[in-house]
Each structure stands twice: as structure tokens, then as C-alpha cells.
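User: Teach me something about this protein's shape.
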Amino acid sequence: GADLFIERKISLVEALCGFELELTHLDGRKLLIKTSPGEIVKPMAQGFDPLSTDEGKTDWDVMEDCDCPGIENVAQADTTDVETLKKACETQLKRKGIDVGVFVVDERRAYFKSCTREEALAAKKTRKGCTMYVLPDPDAKKNFRLMKAVKDEGMPTFKNPFVHGNLFLILTIEFPDTLSPESVNGLRSTLPPALNVPKVKEDDPAVEVHKVTDMDPVQSYSANKVNMQAGGEAYDDDAEEGGGRGGPGGGGVQCNQQ
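Assistant: First, the predicted structure itself:
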């Protein structure tokens, strides 16, 4: 595309109080990029990669005990494996020219329906044992994708060189390792109040007090892996009865177009 992306590190002070960045553009121009007074830079949403070329999987909205019987079925599948059904919507059915707006899963099979999100929600009815998977609202996560950018400072577009893309800033906020008690008190008096205020007290004998520490979840998983495998005495029964977390299999979807 015509958009440009640059990566920069800023301090927590710059994120809260504003920053000024000097940049030499591709054409040699010197740019001074700065925030507006009072503007705050927030970390990007977890899992959001602005440089990803993958459109990403559709995050269907899940509605338990719901169906939309008023909308005609366009296909059905003899499987209840949700991931397989989602893939079928994005590949197999789409190649047949079927745009699925909702699919409903009961205890035995799934039913695909071609409609808009609004039509699916308008036709929603309560039905025990069924689960509706509806296309997400395309604007629901728009705010999570917002980034700091400089308008019209990207590359010229191919068909019209007078129209430019935008220059996006991928900002990584560097937090201090520690803070002095004086700094903590100063921040508490300046920033909005804490969101989590416990009702229990540390000196209550019925309360256990724990302090967090830095740990590597990958290392933690590896350290406990041997104790979670089938054959470990504590988990033998669970593994045999529940079949683990793998869930039901689900080969290819046999979509019966209706």
C-alpha cells in the first residue's frame, strides 16, 4: 500500500506527557513529529499487528441457546466441530458463492445461512441446545486498531501521485524497572484512582497475601509438562474419561447445499 510505518521507542513520561520525534523522510525532508497538548499514547491492543499481511481469521460472535429459524438454510454439515465449520465458511462455501452470515450448531450438525449480521440478530430466537455463530460487527474493534499517525506523509499512490498514504508510528513504551516511594506517591496523587480496591485487609487471618513475580510462561509450561501427560497418576482418570483438551475430531466438512 501507500502507507509507511516506522518503529520508535518512547518513555513512560513521553507517553503520558507528550513526545517530539525527529525524522528524516525518504525524500530528505526533516520532520518534527509531536503530540498535541494533553494527548496520551496508549499501548497497542494485545495481539494486534499492524504489519501483518494476513487478513486474519473471522472472530465470530457466539450466542448460546439461540437460533434464527426464520432465515433459510443454504447448506448444512454433519459435524459440530466449530473450527472446521468456520474454515468451511471462509473457504469451501465461499468458493461456491455462498456468503455465510450466521451458522447454527445443534447436538448433531450445523446449518449455514446467508444473511447480514443485522438480519441474523433480528431473527434470533431462544432455542436450548443450539449455538449461533454470527459475523462480528466490523466496527466493534475499530478503536483497538487506532494508531498515532501523520496524515498524508506516506508514499504517493500509483494512479495519482498527488494523493499520499499516511505515516504510522509503531510506538513501544519503555516502562521503568522500579519507582521510588516518593515517585509512587506523586503518581498516585496525579493519576486517576486505582480500578481495583480490595475489600479484604492484609492483617485479616483468613486472607493469604501474595506478591507477584516475573515468570516465563513457556518455561513454566515445560516444567510441568511431564506431570500433565497421560500416565501421571493424578490425571489418569481425567485423561481417559475426558479425552484431554483436544475435543472432538472433525475432518472435512461435508456441506450439503440446499
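Now, about its shape. The mean pLDDT is 85. The helical segments are 12-17, 82-90, 92-95, 117-122, 181-190, 217-228, 236-242. If you'd like, I can walk through any region in more detail.
User: That's plenty for now, thanks!
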